[in-house]
Amino acid sequence: MDPYLCSLLAGRHLGPAPEPGERMPGQGIARVVEAPSGGPVRPGNRVVLDCGWTRWLTQPADGLQPLKLPPDIPPQTALGILGMPGLTAWAGLHRMATVKSGEVVAVSSASGTVGAAVIALARAAGCTTVGISSAGKLDYVQNELGAHFVLDRGQPLPEQLKNLKVPRIDVYFDNAGGAVLEAMLSHLALNARVVLCGMMAQYEQIERPPGPNLGPVIGARASLHGLVVYDHFDAMPTFLEQAVPLYQAGRLHCHETVFAGLAQAPEALCNLLGGTSHGRVLVRLEPSF
Amino acid sequence: MDPYLCSLLAGRHLGPAPEPGERMPGQGIARVVEAPSGGPVRPGNRVVLDCGWTRWLTQPADGLQPLKLPPDIPPQTALGILGMPGLTAWAGLHRMATVKSGEVVAVSSASGTVGAAVIALARAAGCTTVGISSAGKLDYVQNELGAHFVLDRGQPLPEQLKNLKVPRIDVYFDNAGGAVLEAMLSHLALNARVVLCGMMAQYEQIERPPGPNLGPVIGARASLHGLVVYDHFDAMPTFLEQAVPLYQAGRLHCHETVFAGLAQAPEALCNLLGGTSHGRVLVRLEPSF
After folding, report:
1. C-alpha distance from residue B225 to each of A93, B91, B179 (Å)
2. Of A17, B117, B195, B270, whose CB count within 10 A is highest?
3. How far apart are CA A225 and CA B193, in angstroms?
4. B218 close to A228: Cβ distance less than 8 angstroms
5. What whole-number distance in Å separates Cα of residue B5 and Cα of residue B198?
6. Cα of A104 to nearest chain B Cα, Å
7. Which of B61, B70, B60, B64 is closest to B28 using CA atoms?
8. What are the DSSP calls for B254-281, one per residue?
9. Between 3.40.50.970, 3.40.50.720, 2.60.40.1120, 3.40.50.620, what CATH number should domain A84-231 receive?
10. Is A45 exposed, middle or buried (0-12, 13-18, 19+ CB in 10 A)?
11. Dihedrals phi, psi of A31, to nearest 5 degrees
12. Higher pLDDT, B202 or A196
C-alpha cells in the first residue's frame, strides 16, 4: 500500500485514474505458477511486479526477473525498505540533494517506509537527522528508527524548530506538503536542498490547496526538487549495494503492518492514509502461497 | 530604483529595514570629488556603489573602483542592463537554470530591467522566449525587447499557455510570484528549472500570502532555485564579456524612465511598483554632475 494510490484515484498522479470496476494498481510480490521454459523466470520463482490488487495474474514473462535478495532477508522488504520506497529515499538524498557528511537532514512522515529509509541512509552518510511525525509515533521514530531529534507535527513547528539543538536544516525531505512544508521552508540553512516527494496533506483533498510562500526559499538560496522514483530505477543496484549490508547490520529497518487477505486491502489503504498504522503497510494473500 | 526596496521597507529583505529618518539604501553612480592620492580612485572618476538616496557621501576609498565601460556606452547602464539587474538575469539563466540552446524560456515582469536582460541573454543562448507582462507593455516586450511570444498577465494564463505555439516551458524566470508563478508551474516541461528571483506580487503586502501548490513540480520533476544576485558578483566580468558586445550590437537594451531630482525618488519608487513605468527607473540628481 502506497500513499500515491489516493492521488491516483483522484486523477492527480502521473497516469490516469482507474475506472470503477478496473483493478486497483499496486506493487506486489508474486510467485510464478507457470512459465514458458527457457524464459527469464521458472515456476516457484518470486517476482516483484505491478500486479495490482489481485490473486492471480497472467503476464508476459519478458521483463520479469526472479527476486534476488540474500536468503536471510524476508522477501517483503523488496516492497519496502529494500524496494521502491528505499530507492526513493536514496535517490532524493544522493541524486537530488547530494547530502554531505555533517549536514542536518529533516524528513516528514518520518514513521513511513520512505521516512525510515531517509533516516537510516542519512545517518549512514554521516548526517544529523530530524524526524517529523505525529505525537504517538515520535518514540518509534527516535528510538527504533534512530532519528537524532524529533518534531511533533501536531504542535506548532516554528517554535520547535527554534528550540532545536542543531543548526538550520540543510536537506529537507518532504513527504507531507501543507503546513509542515511551509514551516520547514522558513528554517532552511543557506543553500539548502528540499526534496519534494509526496503531498500526504493533500492526497485526500478534491481541490489542490494553496502551497507555501516561497519568499524564504529565495532568502536561503535554496533549491526544491521534484522527485519521481520511476526516473531512478537504474540506481537500484547501487542502492541495494549500500542498503543490504545496512539492513543486515540492523541499521535499516521499518515496522510492518500486515493485513491478512485481499478483502482487507481497502481497509489497509485507509489505515495508511489515516495515519493509524505505521511503517510499511502490506496485504498478505490468504491462504499464503 | 529596484523592486526589492519595498520588501526591504517591510522588513522582509535580507538586511534590516531602515528606520524612519535613516537614509534609504540603493545603488547609484557617483562622481568622486575628493580622494586620497595613491588610492584606487581619483577625483573625476565615476564609481558604482551603494550610496543610497543622497547627493553627497563620504566613504572609504578602499573597495571603490572607477567605472570601466567602453566610452560609447552610457554610464547609467552600469545600474541596469550592464549592472546588477543584467547580472541577475545571467546568473539565473547560466548558473541556476543552465539553459541550453533550443529550450523555451519564459520570464515574468518581462518589461523590467531583469526581464529585458533575460529575454536578450536567452535569445543569445539560442532559446525561444516568452515574455509575461501587463497588456499595455506587451507590444514593447515583443517588438522592442524581442520576445518570440508574449502572455498578458491580466488575462487567465492557463488558456494562453495552452494556445501557445511552443512546447511546455523548460526554464521559467520568476520575478512575480503569486498567480503568475502558480500558472507557470502547471505548464512546465519535464525536468524544468524555475528561477525564483522576486515576488513582485507580494512586495506591498504586510503578511506573506500563501504560495503555489507544488504538486505539479513533482509531476514535472522540476527544480526551483532561489536566486540572490549578491552571491554572483564574481561572475560580473564573465557576464560583461558577453553582455557588452550584445549591447553594442543593439541586441541587449532596456527602456529607461528617468526622474529628475532626488525629491522625485519616492515618486519614482511608487511608479516602479505600481507598474506605470517600464524598463529601468532611474533618478538623476539635479543639477547633474
Report:
1. 17, 11, 18
2. B117
3. 9
4. yes
5. 11
6. 20
7. B64
8. --EEEEESGGGHHHHHHHHHHT-S-SEE
9. 3.40.50.720
10. middle
11. -105, 135
12. A196
ipTM value of the model? 0.88
The answer to whether B223 contacts A223, with C-beta atoms less than 8 Å apart, is yes
Contact A174, A157 (CB under 8 A): no
The pLDDT of residue A15 is 74
Question: For residue A105, what are the β-bridge partners?
Answer: A129, A171
> What span, in angstroms and rounded, lies between the C-alpha atoms of B213 and B230?
28
How far does Cα A277 stand from its chain's mean position? 14
pLDDT tens-digit map of B134-173: 999 999 999 999 999 999 999 999 999 999 999 899 999 9
Instruction: Answer whether the bond into residue A70 is a cis peptide, omega within 30°.
Output: no
Of B196, B197, B217, the CB nearest to A226: B217
Mean pLDDT over A78-91 rounds to: 96
Q: Test B215 with A197 for CB contact under 8 angstroms.
A: no
Q: Which residues of B touch A228 (CB under 8 A)?
A: 218-219, 221
Residue A201's identity, in one-letter code, is A
User: Tens of pLDDT along A132-162?
Assistant: 999 999 999 999 999 999 999 999 999 999 9
Q: Given CATH 2.60.120.380, say whether it is the number of domain B4-68+257-284.
A: no
Which CATH number does A4-68+255-284 carry? 3.90.180.10
DSSP string, A21-88: TSPPP--EEEE-S---TTSS--TT-EEEE---S-S-----STT-------TTS-GGGGGTTTSHHHHH
Inter-chain CB proximity B226 and A211 less than 8 Å = no
Closest CA to B179 of B108, B129, B85, B229: B108
Nearest residue, CB atoms, B14 vs list A196, A210, A219: A219
